[in-house]
Specification:
This protein is of the alpha/beta class. The chain is built from four helices and seven strands. The longest helix is centred in the middle third of the chain and has 16 residues. The chain is globular and about 40 Å long. The model has no long low-confidence stretch (mean pLDDT 94). Bound molecules: zinc ion (ZN). The site of zinc ion (ZN) has 8 residues, from loops.
Amino acid sequence: MTTTEAKSPVTIRCVFCDKLNRVDMTRAASRPTCGECGKPMLLDRPVKVAQDDFDKTVLGAGVPVLVDFYADWCGPCRMVAPFVDEIAQKNVGRMLVAKVDTDRAPDVAMRYGIRSIPTLIVFQNGAELERSVGFEPERVKALVQRVAG
Ligand SMILES: [Zn+2]
């Protein structure tokens, strides 16, 4: 993406060509593009994170990450989804919002002891900071405010 030292680097997959890109979140406003296909990197919405990408994308992020652990069949998860979309939209450049499909990432779900979905976990510097189980919008908003300011 850029040859200068990135202040808030994140590694995310291009939704168009699937190539992993390193993006500097502090430069999100300048609309970074994929180094492979040249299409825009979509930073104003949650990024889907697969099991293989989790460590690199979530734990390796240079910004706080809110991860929505969900499953397609889960009704309450659909209630949380628009709320999570809104957090992504409002915090472009300050925070990464990721979605993990627990059916497709059972190892990650087990590692973090996800017993009930939706579970939202905020990660900072590669470690879990705090989690919210179920639909607790006020609590999650306050937490996001605290880490993303
Ligand atoms: Zn691409």
